[in-house]
Amino acid sequence: MANILIVEARFYDHLNDLLLAGARAAIEAAGHTHETVTVPGALEVPGAIALAAEAYDAFVALGVVIRGETYHFEIVAGESARGIMALTMDGLAIGNGILTTENEAQALTRARPDEKDKGGEAAKAALAMLALRARFG
Ligand SMILES: Nc1c(NC[C@H](O)[C@H](O)[C@H](O)CO)[nH]c(=O)[nH]c1=O
Ligand SMILES: CC(=O)[C@@H](O)COP(=O)(O)O
Fold it and tell me: Which positions are annotated as binding (2S)-2-hydroxy-3-oxobutyl phosphate (predicted)?
């Protein structure tokens, strides 16, 4: 049994609740345990995972970045993904469920567990990487 840390960037409460429900359900269905920590925004997610790297078996990154009027969207979306990918290349098992969308409607469809279930998908990705590390690591 693995202990998974969900790191959620709580920028949009209603969308985060959906992502969290999907991720928790997927981890529990696979027979693993989980804890959740909350950070202010997607830019803080890679740092939080780095701080907790030694304490958990795998990580699920959750959040929602919705395009605004300025270049900030590119920074938040791109740099959070870049940070998570850097940690992945260091050998951490991480599923990235940070949505980067044009609008709230796109985010809602992707966050809902009974639609695209990107939270659940990210949790399954983290577990898949954990299994690969057990095999090759
Ligand atoms: N605009 C969004 C943000 N922005 C906040 C940053 O992630 C960060 O918390 C801030 O710059 C302080 O370091 N975060 C999201 O998760 N989603 C957004 O749409
Ligand atoms: C991530 C974003 O683009 C956003 O939330 C910030 O909006 P804005 O560019 O209008 O300041």
Answer: 69-70, 110
